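Action item from last week, closing it out:
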Amino acid sequence: MRRLLLAAALLAASPALAQDIRIGARATPTLDPHFLFLDSNRAYHQHLYGRLVERDGDGRYIPGLAESWRTVDPLRWRFTLRRDVTFHNGTAFTADDVVFSFARVPAIPGNPAPYTYYLTSITGVEKVDDHTVDIVTSRPNPLVPIQTNGISIVSRAATEGKTPGDFATGVAAIGTGPYRFVEYRSGERLVLERFDSFRGQPPHWRRVEFRILANNAARTAALLAGDVDLIDNVSPVDADRLGGNSAVAVHRSPSARIIYLGATISLGQSPLTTDANGQPLATNPLADVRVRRALSLAINRSAIVERVLGGYGETSSQLAVVGMNGFVADRQPDPFAPEESAKLLREAGWGQGFRTTLTCPNDRYVGDAATCQGLGQMLARIGIHAAVETAPASIYFSRLRTPGNELPLFLLGVGNDTGDTIGTLIGVIHGYDRERRMGSINRSGFADAEVDGLIQQAVVELDMARRSALMEQAMRLATERYAVIPLYQPMVIFASRTGLNYLPNRDEQTLAMRAVPAGGRP
């Protein structure tokens, strides 16, 4: 109690919030907006870069760097660009920057998680004049404006010939966003300053400092000590504790993310998967849908939500949340049925079990490491002995390749903040198809001709009711065939000083633009 009172006194004694904000953030940023697709990276990029089409606070798509768009013919969208936009270095924004940015996305070598699924069906971006571009597609695609929201526009003059590392120094981190780059120290801090020539609504804060604090306890301690004004990814345990502190405000929102267990189907022989005695296997047990279903039935999802998330979440039946287009309403989460799970393993010829590896991040999702430890224990009860390995996100995601992922079992999350399942279906469920730019984050290697066909139809379907039905059918089949194993939908939790109001969103993004002094609205 004495410690809490001291923390409250420190917060109360801190200077009133004015022009600067300090944010304790868990994720280390990658400042190249076309390298390593992660929602946490996308959040950092929102500060620095603009997109042709933006989204408002309610998730609606609105004009961004493009003031308008229309179809010229079924295979061509025309975007009229704003003329009043400048980059942070003072140069004018033109069509050349758009053409360059779209072309750069698939061209970065060694990108472990590219942004190419935002280019689905897009075959080229052509300059019409300095303030007009055409996006050309291989087939009619009503989603092109939405897809452009995933491609940040960089300065061609500042970026051409540069590597992702050049963004970390600030040399190439030149955008049109509300903030400009000031300083970055990897694993320590990112400092941004308000861009006074920003074309949109000026942000409230003059200076933003993200302090990278990967440890949950460190972020909480920094808030209580008055070293930061806002923290993200608050753990459920800390949320309950902070909620009782009068100097702290806790901000909650359901997330649109689904955390899932991936089982790599495409692996052949793997040194990471052996029989129960440690001998090599001629076949991959995870390629059998009965084995993947057995994994699912061995998992007590409710126990994970209650014990790891402290009740701040919901069990999941699919890679979608209620209310989304394509959500399968009559699908329920698999029950905890270890007896049926063991029976399925016997039917599949794995009654003696096997050994494998479960690899997870330990600083990316709420309770990720604890979830993995729990999963390892649950699978061991049916004879699947999975050695649990955890690593920081920066290391973990570099090991998850598409195609060719070599991790047998892995924990991941997928966001669904657009209100539509098509992005998840294209990126995570569709088989890897470099030409179509589909399956770019399909780490399991799942490939099903029937499911792929439904997704391809949904992408080009103009009738919204028919399109939703196609997405729902694809999601149903992918779930029944265990493309992945859905686990739970967490809650996004932030905490701040009481003098600050923060509006969390289901996209989980940590944005300085969503924070304002108490009484205001972002």
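Closing note: The chain has 16 helices and 21 strands.
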